[in-house]
Structure formats: structure tokens, C-alpha cells
Amino acid sequence: MVLEVSGLRYRVGNREVLRSVDLVVHAGQSVAISGPSGCGKSTLLMCCLGLVKPHAGGVVVCAGRMDKLSGRRLLRHRRESVGMVFQAGELLPELAPLENVAIAGLLAGVPRAEAFTRAEELLTELGVPTDGAETGSLSGGERQRVAVARALVNRPALLLADEPTGALDSAARETVADLLYALPERWHCGLVVVTHDPAVAARAQRRFLLTDGSLTSAPTSEPVGTGAAS
Ligand SMILES: Nc1ncnc2c1ncn2[C@@H]1O[C@H](COP(=O)(O)OP(=O)(O)OP(=O)(O)O)[C@@H](O)[C@H]1O
Ligand SMILES: [Mg+2]
User: Whole-model pTM above 0.85?
Assistant: First the structure.
């Protein structure tokens, strides 16, 4: 398995944001997590990255304890095992898309030529122009795909995406969702998507709601987003 969250608890002041969260994700699986604003979805992803330390429970990513590792060992394990899709604003707009992607590889110690080769292959595969235009001049959908490429350049076993389609129109949203949900099979990675969008959540193999600090299963068979005008 690529991710095992067990009995996770996290408090902010007196409030238990995460009360008891359990989640197992295997390679090749996709999971969507939804829930009201402020319920703790991003906090849960931060715990998976080892950026937030839970008050109880554990997070194992590819046999590494994200809640216990610290310093360089945590950094190294995160870079080797986890990709995080941040929203487009996390990219450096003045760099070319190729540089934005390659830099994540360089930071992880991938040799320069290899990092740029991987970046070019990923962007080409994802249909993003690599002719040197600044990332800031790309469309929102193109930037989102650059963010996905950057999360993948180190070939992570676990891919986390926090609201990856939040700022996109419906066409770009479909492109990014198509791409993300193809990844578990193509890359044999685990995928966790946090989303407010029911149509995006519906495409995951398993769907969960985060409410009152724990995950509950959401139905997976209900068709969402097709003729559901109300
Ligand atoms: N470092 C922190 N300091 C203070 N409060 C925090 C901190 N981290 C999280 N919180 C609080 O914990 C709660 C959960 O935040 P979180 O960002 O995880 O919610 P979310 O489910 O991702 O919400 P959204 O859907 O709006 O992104 C919020 O009430 C937030 O204010
Ligand atoms: Mg959030």
C-alpha cells in the first residue's frame, strides 16, 4: 500500500479538526475526499505530507512514517514518494513551464539533463507547449497541467491533489480530471483528490466525506454531472 492513515487526530486550539481518520490507498487506486469548507481536508493532506504533525495516530507513506520522520529524512522521503498538485498560483510565473517542472526534479537530486528530459516528456504528454513561453502567460488549464507535471516529475508512488480544478472552467476541469484519474493506472501510483466538485469526486474509485473529523464512505454508483439540472 502507498498510504495508510490510522486513528489520526489533530486539534486546533480546543477544536478537534481531525478526530479519528482512517484511510488506506493502494497503488493503482483513486480516492476522492469532499466535505464542507474548514472540515480539515487540507489539514489531512498536510499530515500525509508530514508538514503537519498529528496529535495522535499515524501516517505511513511507502513504509515511511510521515508523522515520525523529520528533517532531511522527511524531506528526502517526501520528495521520493509523494507528489502534491498545488493550484496554479504555486508555480513560478516568470519561469518557463519546462523550468517549473524540472526544478522539482533538481530539488530532489535528479541530474540536470534527466530532470529536463523528464519534464519535457511529461509536458509533451500532457499537451502543454514547451516552446519557452512564460508560465504566467499560459491558460489556467495549461498551468494546472504544468502543476500536475511538476507533481509527477519525481515519479511518486502517491499523488495528492488539493482542489486541483477549483479555478477552472468546465472544459479545463474535464481535461485535468481526465488526466488525474488516468494516472493510477498509467503510473501505478495512488491518487488522493480533495475536491468540492461532485463531478470530479464522482470519478474516483472510492469517495469519502470528511465530516465531524472522520471519513465516511460516500456512494460510488450514483451518476453525477450528467443531466442533473435542478
Ligand atoms: N495552522 C493553523 N492554525 C489555525 N487554524 C488552523 C490551522 N490549520 C488549520 N486550521 C483550522 O482547521 C480547520 C480546517 O482547515 P482546513 O484548511 O484543513 O480545511 P479544509 O477542509 O481544507 O477547508 P476548505 O474546503 O475551505 O479548503 C479550519 O477551521 C482552519 O481554520
Ligand atoms: Mg482546503
Answer: yes
